[in-house]
Design goal:
heterodimer; A: alpha/beta; Rossmann fold; 2 domains; five-stranded mixed sheet; 12 helices; B: alpha/beta; two-stranded antiparallel ribbon; 10 helices; 12% strand; globular
């Protein structure tokens, strides 16, 4: 929908806003550093720390960035291994090509930038210089989906849709700090190009309470439920677990299947879980409803002849607003509260 | 320096260039049309690269000590194959499979198809930036191998060429040698009209921190001097050799054709072209 900035509703400070309530207006910048809710357990820079740990056993590992080392937690690696760090400047095409060339010479490059720049600006370079030759480059990108309030220039709401069509490419959407620190050695051990969505800064940690271990290409059932099954990736799994907890108190029993590997998709597990007892399947993702996990799951199920009631929680097919993340997550239906509301409505209909 | 020309009784570079042109015409005949004019134009450059400058083992194209040759201009594959056939990297009898189903010699060069082909070019503008990665990788390995990257005047319209040029200058990549084929012809017409700025190419690279030379790319003596200077320069900077070449060089009746980016040649003209080429042989 085209909207001029001149007809955007002006929300004054006294009005408060969004599902978060409260009289004080949330700001965009307050939410850049972390997705964590106040008081939530977090780990600082899990990607950077995991890379430093991995570098001990992988002398072939090098880190590259395009002027976003600090904002992708790669600065931790750069500080620990300055001789293995390559600052390529604000040149994403060069970043990807350099990573390709270094992979050709036998190195294991981790290249970082924002998801928008990798997906939109450097697509051809990842596709032809890296993926077509199945080179061992790991593209790790911050600000996936709606994780910044800067507006469409920084919101990679369609990165998975863009990358899913690229042959050879593995796509990872980790949920939390635990997922990230376990995914890093796993994607390094896999030979071939990988795109990983990154949460940076103080990253929430939740999966340690679910006897969880990241395995490349595997979906993991975090909890079972009889009324509905949420199939989710990225931080939406964290939101799903929160929503399910709230619904349980209202005697609604919902399971959560976490799918950190978007491609290749763990079709067998998805089909098995979606086939159980006619429960509704709800796919929740931090991504536009077009071309992401939701449509991937729908395709798998239809092809397998499994047709449960099916709903999607995801971002609308729009250029999204600027603002504070909690506000935007409420506005676009991916906050815990908004998600809970949708699920209750669907289950009682 | 171990190079093919250091062998006794090696053919002259002019003879090498002639044979590269002949291979290209024979491959062109398989398709009946194609990027013949580019191959004929760049043959002298490739003769000097493969038979004077570069270090490699024809029977082991992945030999670690080799100089890397990156073909950014994927459709120049016909020229690269012609040189690699002459070098003994690709068997001559594969020439007749050029561009055919299941051939190792596709129309646009790809690393996974052809021995000796380092990268998949063709998405124009990528090669030089990939060369930056090769050059940095070789430096990490403390290798003294050079990275040669052949790209075109038309490609200089791609922003990624200048990201690569800027990065190479910033990293002072003295093991990277760019070769620009300036034949002033691209898909939609003369590069001087379609892209522009060709007269300033040397200045542009110099401004990005490169050692730039501009030579007649059909003058083997000038090319030898330029490659020698590029390799022996002590300054820690990347090097570029800008080569002004003539499309279809060596076959005058094809040189005359307008818009010869993708030449259509009549069936009876191939033999005529070979005959003309043979008559100009300077072995």
């Amino acid at each position: 929908m085209m909207r001029s900035k001149y007809i955007r509703p002006v929300r004054l400070k006294e009005q408060g806003e969004g599902g978060q309530g409260g009289a004080s207006r949330l700001t965009t910048s307050a939410m850049i550093a972390s997705l964590a809710a106040p008081g939530q357990r977090t780990k600082p820079a899990p990607f950077g720390q995991a890379l430093v740990a991995l570098a001990e056993t992988r002398p072939d590992l090098v880190g590259l960035t395009a002027d976003l080392g600090k904002y992708t937690d790669l600065h931790i690696f750069a500080k620990a291994h300055p001789d293995r760090f390559y600052q390529m400047g604000m040149s994403e095409q060069l970043l990807m090509c350099t990573a390709a060339g270094m992979a050709r010479e036998g190195f294991l490059p981790f290249a970082t930038t924002y998801a928008v720049f990798a997906a939109r600006r450097a697509y051809d370079f990842i596709c032809l210089a890296i993926a077509e030759e199945n080179l061992n480059v790991k593209v790790v990108c911050a600000l996936p989906g709606l994780t910044t309030g800067y507006g469409p220039s920084h919101q990679a709401t369609e990165d998975i849709a863009i990358f899913r069509g690229m042959p050879n490419l593995t796509i990872i959407d980790p949920c939390d700090a635990l997922d990230i620190e376990q995914a890093v050695p796993a994607i390094a051990a896999h030979h071939g190009p990988v795109y990983m969505r990154l949460l940076r800064g103080n990253v929430p940690i939740v999966l340690d309470e679910y006897d969880y271990k990241f395995e490349l290409g595997k979906a993991k059932l975090l909890r079972d439920g009889t009324d509905a099954l949420i199939i989710s990736s990225g931080f939406m799994t964290m939101r799903a677990l929160e929503a399910v907890e709230g619904l349980k108190a209202q005697r609604v029993d919902v399971g959560v299947l976490h799918v950190p590997t978007i491609k290749p998709l763990d079709e067998a597990t998805i089909i098995r879980e979606a086939s159980k007892t006619g429960r509704m399947v709800i796919v929740a993702e931090n991504h536009t409803v077009i071309g992401g996990l939701g449509e991937a799951v729908a395709g798998v199920l239809l092809r397998a002849g499994v047709t449960p009631a099916f709903r999607q929680i995801g971002l609308p097919d729009e250029f999204l607003d600027a603002g504070a993340l909690p506000t935007l997550h409420d506005r676009y239906g991916i906050s815990t509260a908004a998600m809970t509301k949708s699920i209750k409505r669907w289950l009682s209909a | 320096m171990e190079t093919p020309t250091s062998r006794a009784n090696a053919p002259s570079l002019a003879e090498r260039a002639y044979r590269i042109r002949r291979n290209a015409l024979r491959m062109g005949e398989v398709q009946g049309q194609g990027y013949i004019a580019q191959a004929l134009g760049v043959a002298d450059v490739l003769a000097v690269a493969y038979f004077h400058a570069m270090r490699y083992h024809p029977d082991d194209p992945e030999w670690e000590g080799r100089d890397r040759f990156l073909l950014s201009i994927g459709h120049y594959a016909i020229a690269a194959y012609s040189a690699m056939i002459e070098a003994g990297i690709i068997p001559e009898d594969e020439l007749e499979t050029y561009g055919s189903d299941d051939s190792r010699l596709p129309m646009s060069g790809m690393a996974s198809y052809t021995p000796g082909m380092e990268i998949s070019g063709g998405s124009l503008g990528q090669g030089l930036a990939i060369g930056v990665g090769y050059a940095l990788g070789l430096k990490r390995k403390k290798s003294d191998a050079f990275v040669y990257c052949l790209f075109s005047d038309g490609e200089c319209g791609e922003g990624a060429v200048w990201e690569g040029a800027s990065g190479a200058g910033h990293w002072k990549l003295d093991n990277l040698i760019g070769i620009v084929d300036v034949n002033n012809q691209q898909a939609d017409g003369p590069s001087s009209e379609v892209t522009g700025g060709l007269e300033h190419l040397a200045d542009r690279f110099t401004a990005f921190g490169w050692y730039a030379q501009r030579v007649n790319g059909n003058d083997i003596g000038a090319l030898v001097s330029a490659f020698d200077a590029a390799r022996s320069l002590r300054e820690p900077m990347p090097r570029v050799i800008i080569c002004d070449t003539k499309m279809a060089k060596g076959v005058p009746f094809l040189e005359q054709r307008e818009s010869n980016h993708f030449l259509r040649v009549e069936a009876d003209e191939w033999q005529q072209a070979l005959t003309v080429l043979d008559s100009g042989r300077t072995a």
